[in-house]
Amino acid sequence: MIRNNLKIQDTFEDQLNQFQSLLLGVKLAQISSIILIAFSLVLAYINREHILVVLSLLIGALSFVFCMYQFLSLKGIKQNSYTQRSLVDSISKFTRYISNRKKCEMYFIAFWALTLIPSAATYMGSNLFAILGSISFIAVGSFFGGLAFKEVDRQILTLETVMKKELDTFS
Hints:
elongated, mainly alpha, 5 helices, single chain
């Protein structure tokens, strides 16, 4: 019985560590958003003579602020107690969180990239290159973002499956 209990504890620790790495990924996404906001603000300052460029960049920065507040906040998901039941509840909340985030995040990134077009056009001297660059950025970002969400979905499914099996065994 002690050996079986130790195995369950080891599995729980592994699952808890995996869940905490998923939470770390969210924190990295928040930091990335802050960097993109700062990038927009720096570009707005550099282009301060061009009011339309500045407005475009500020709108892009504000969209990311909204995205961070609305979709990157981990309200109520943090792991407070270290029991299997609380971990299962946190994973369930995280699953809903990722589902909501997946629906909207790429739209905000695409919108932000489009707000860069006026600034890029002033440096490239061509609206066509700025538009193509933004579309390329959106396409590459969408591809890698989709891969990242698939990996997170896979990790969540693994966590849920193992935790459910452990709870059934433990009960």
